[in-house]
Amino acid sequence: MKRAGVIAGVVWLEMLRRKDLYVVFILLAALLVAMAGMNVFGLGQVSGYIKDIGLFAAWLLGWILAVNTSVRLLPQEESRGTIFALLAKPVTRLDVVVGKWLGAWSVICGATLSFYLVTELVILLRGGSFDAATLIQALLLHAVALGMVTAMGVALSTRLHSDAAATLTYVVTGTIFVLLPRIPALLVAQQGARATALMALYYALPHFELFDLRQRLVHGWGPAPWGVFAGIILYGLLLTAVLVMLAWLGYRRRRFARGEIL
Amino acid sequence: MNTPVLRESGPWLIVMAGWGLAFALACRLCAALPLDNGDTDILGRLLGESRSVLSANLYDEADTFFHKGVAHLRKRAFTNDWIQVWHQAVSPTTHQHTEGGEVAEILPWLKLATRADPHNVEASLVMAFWIDTGLRKPRLARQVLLDTLRENPGEYRVSLELGRLAIQQAQFVEAQVRLTAGLSQWPSVLPADDRQALLDKAEMLILLGFLAEIRGDITGAVTHFKNALAIFPERSYIRQRLGFLESGVAPPDSARDRLQYLVKRTVDDACADEDDGHKEGRHAPESAPARK
User: What's the average model confidence in pLDDT over B219-246?
Assistant: First the structure.
């Protein structure tokens, strides 16, 4: 795992060099400052909409960063030909996959933390605040959800080039976000094979909605029950482990021919 | 002719000629095409027709804020599996409404909804209601309604709301003008047989009837009440009042008191009406009370 940590460190250096994070961070800050500057009938203390927009932006930007970062790490090594140098070192394929995932996930978590901090800062300036315990829960669950998205991106990029992997990850995760929570309502009007297919999807795919505590945070409902919170964390970590495992299975026998790549 | 010079400047000449041609074509097209319909703000140009969808979403968000983040319940095929149980545990599910100063939290969403689509009259009316009753700023509510009327000149609902606001402020002359205008604009975009449109028309007629009574115009009041009864014959109070007026007997309660009662609305009314909506199984956003 130490070798995976070293690979993750390289991912960090690369991400800091690419400047994507700074651009996204500036974008979020500009959006929040513009929203905070909106004069709503002279109601200076109103901050609920900034909380909502800030957290929505944190989820949206976190998702975009997670997909775009995770899907390019392995194909990039191949297209540059650096995969040969990497695999020539005493590292296993598992180290590479775990290292890339860990690097991408930790970078995205760092970026997401900074999104939450800038949102909190703008809200403090407007005279509002988040409940600390709920904020910690929300941040941790968000981080685990990003871990799943990142693992899915890495898994798909082991067999597809980065553009195809990105498209597929966006489609799958987007569908999960939108469709999965609605399946119990959709099943009211469905029967037969269609209902069975929906049920299969419902239990097979990760339920991102469980990781979304934005409404609790924005409307001051306080922290979620800690037992349920721990259960959801465990569920997320388990699914992440499964997806990383899938990525390794897809990568462990992958053949690289220098002539095909270079 | 110097060939290298021509080779150097040739591409530039082609670019300039192309640009000149495009400029001339643009001038000609601008002169030939009719002017747009005045929908010239940046959002309108950027979003086109999708602005109404964005506005509706922002209006829904205001409704979510009114319910403190609790989403409207949908019928589900199952509710007892572990995913549903966990989701209910982490999501706010208790039916609640914003109270006190928290009411102000829904206003930014309504303002954004009306900015996204100035023709979203429903959002403007709800916004004016909350500014008036929640924040107790009737002047500001009136300004919002006037802005809405400027964007939607034929909307009777805005005129009705302005009329109600004027009655609350005991400005009966303005109320008369607004309600008469509203009556002439009715039914605006709604179908003439729409129940809410009919309720609104009856309300305008009844308010105009009481305003006529205050002016001492009993004939006018009788006409308005009769027209209202033609729409809803079961209104026993109006029938009784009509009887008093036609027989020349003074009604037991004054027209002023009755008018104030009719236009008085509180935040509690909105919440109670909203709760009734839930009992009846209505799921559409209802952040303002139904009219009496």
Answer: 94
B28 CB contacts (<8 Å, ≥6 apart)? none
- Residue of A22, A233, A18 lying closest to A137 (CA atoms): A233
Contacts of A187 (CB under 8 A, 6+ apart): A195, A198, A199, B76, B77, B78
Question: ipTM of the predicted structure?
Answer: 0.86
Q: Name every chain A residue with its beta carbon within 8 A of the beta carbon of B77.
A: 184-185, 187-188
The first and second tokens of residue A115, run together, are: 């999104």
The pLDDT of A196-203, averaged and rounded, is 92
Query: Which tokens belong to B66?
Result: 């009114």
Of B64, B92, B140, the CB nearest to A41: B140
Q: How many CB atoms lie within 10 A of CB B200?
A: 22
Record: contact A219-B65, CB cut-off 8 A: yes
* Selected residue of A182, A196, A219, A233 to mutate for chain B interface (largest B Cβ count, 10 A): A219
B187 compared with B283, residue with greater pLDDT: B187
Cβ contact B90–A228 (<8 Å): yes
Residue B29 in 3-state DSSP?
A: helix
Give the CA distances from residue A222 to residues A132, A218, B9, B104, B106, in Å, rounded to whole numbers and listed in that order: 9, 10, 71, 21, 20
Question: What integer pLDDT is reported at residue B289 of this predicted model?
Answer: 41
Q: Which residues, other chains included, contact A13 with Cβ-Cβ below 8 Å and sequence gap of 6+?
A: none
Task: Please give the pLDDT value at position B286.
Answer: 38
**Which structure tokens are listed for A93?**
């394929």
The pLDDT-based confidence of A39 (bands split at 50, 70, 90) is confident
The pLDDT of B147-164, averaged and rounded, is: 95
The string of DSSP codes covering B91-144 is S--S-----GGGGGGGHHHHHHHHHH-TT-HHHHHHHHHIIIIIS--HHHHHHH
Residue B76 carries which DSSP code?
Answer: -
Cα Rg, chain B, nearest whole Å? 27
CB B137 within 8 A of CB B164: no
B131 touches chain A (CB under 8 A): yes
DSSP A140-164: HHHHHHHHHHHHHHHHHHTTS-HHH
Cα atoms found within 13 Å of the Cα of residue B128, Cβ hemisphere only: 26
Give the predicted TM-score (pTM) of the model: 0.82
**Integer Cα distance of B179 and B211 in angstroms:** 10
Q: Looking at the partner chain, which of B76, B91, B131 has a beta carbon nearest the beta carbon of A184?
A: B76
Q: What single-letter DSSP state applies at residue A180? A: G
